[in-house]
Input
Amino acid sequence: MIFKEEKKSFFGKMSQRISDALAGKATIDDDFMDELEEILITSDIGMETTMKIVDMLRTEVKTNNLTKPSVIKIRLAKIIASVINKKDAQQLCQDTPLVILMIGINGGGKTTSIGKLAHKLRQEGKTVMLAAADTFRAAAAEQLCIWGDRVGVNVVKHQEGADPSAVIYDAIQSAKAKNIDVLICDTAGRLQNKKNLMDELNKMNKIIGREYPEAARENLLVLDATTGKNAVSQVKEFGDVADITGIVLTKLDGTAKGGIVVTIADEFDLPVKFIGVGEGIDDLKEFDPVEFAEGIFNE
Output
């Protein structure tokens, strides 16, 4: 299992700390619940989400008269899974044609995620095209083209500094002419200020709506898991300028605690659709809430 192998890096030593807190206890008391709160919060799980999880566990303990430490960990995993599971919204839209806008700050793994997602979709038998609409960052289009060559998909690009919406327009015309299943669009991670970013994304959305009204839509926010709670502020910022339909969480293969998964899914009611668990082209995985939660506690 993916998460069993990586659980130490996902949540640090959260499972061990919970085991230590339970050690020697004949009953599950308030002292344990207080310690559990501290453990969850220091694992990058936000205060509100932590309180929800602990309250749900308190109810289960009281209702079912739970006392065994081994049972507590199983129930806790189920509670966490229930908090982060967004059911049907968890899956990438399967309708075609589909236009995916990839948004997120520079350096968060956006271009790499686009390449890996394009590869995944091609492996599923879909035709894919990329649009290099981040025309503000030097070499952004070139990096996307490298991925396009590697994956074997066409990339629509203009010169650096061109109008990003013009790139989107041309990509849509090309995708329609070639009956492409999925068009994935790179976007600028930062402009001069939030208003510029909002205006640019609004313009892109208008172009897509006007030129490709029959297309299904996804707006995926790419977040670097190693930034921890800073990722929460990114969700808030981009949520102000775009209708986010899901999260792609990158770099869950190193020092990331992973608790940020729980916070984002709960506080923003957003599905984590994909996670990056390595550098390889196949290391973009569909997020499985149950597997993730169980993986926290697998010894």
